[in-house]
């Protein structure tokens, strides 16, 4: 069994009175899918039986862990999980997701990937103490204007789906082999250092909305823990007000930290496995290239080592198309959408408006009120709730 602080400074057992959220996150939380209860096993059997009768099982998405994820996302309500799985199947067929990664494991269809990573820094770096991949997003370093110059929204959504498929077919299998047990979740680190209002314009809000819907509807229950670091004080106040409205399972997955994040983060991700730009001992490769147990079998890593000149012409063409699409999109209305998949848009818009309303905490109060209304209405699922955290951080102290 894995233990908190095994081999890296646990010392005496942590008392319940001083235990932090990271301290309380146990093996049972990390590997919940390996020990379903008898009641959950019954629900699993019913779901499989119904999908088999309908001939609706999706190849490579028909294992027990996948079905358990859909059941968990719907609180083990078999009928709701069945509807969710059917929707996933229909979406994969309509968007030609099946075979997306297998046909192009090196990501050759995205010649703009290098420029994309520079404008929108994100990468997966090593594994946490549970053997799960650690995904890092440098939200404060994102250049939204540059991003939409190098890639269209449509292609960025396609890239998002491709990275999900790579995650399922390359990263997780490699992590599972290295850990000696099935790994199906990840630890996420969102770094907000340098974040400002300009990071969340109407275009990025719509994009976050789409990403959130894809993540929660078609790839549910992959989030293990989310650390949001370098958070401004004003948002920690917002988060304190919102947190009680979230389900306990969701609250337990999201940990807010300021600039002194390393001691708490290190309880889950050993310092030597963190990248140097986050204060760890690991060396991040140039261009925000991912590294971990999957590096050797990942064709995209091999491709990353090749000169980028071959894709320059294609990237230039993509940039031209992106610029044209951006002009067309700018002419569209940016009204916030409402509903579970629209929480990111409505919340971030509310926070933007709140921040502009004046001084003396009025902006924060308006943001909290809007967030509370959305959450009280039951419109925020697990991924949407996590996205609320990032979106609401458009408020700066």
Automatic annotation (TrEMBL):
UniProt membrane topology term: Peripheral membrane protein
A GO CC term attached to the entry: plasma membrane
Superkingdom of source: Eukaryota
SMART domains: CRAL_TRIO_N, SEC14
InterPro entries attached to this UniProt entry: CRAL-TRIO_dom (IPR001251), CRAL-TRIO_dom_sf (IPR036865), CRAL/TRIO_N_dom (IPR011074), CRAL/TRIO_N_dom_sf (IPR036273), PI/PC_transfer (IPR051026)
Protein name, as recorded: CRAL-TRIO domain-containing protein
Organism: Chlamydomonas incerta
Chief subcellular location: membrane
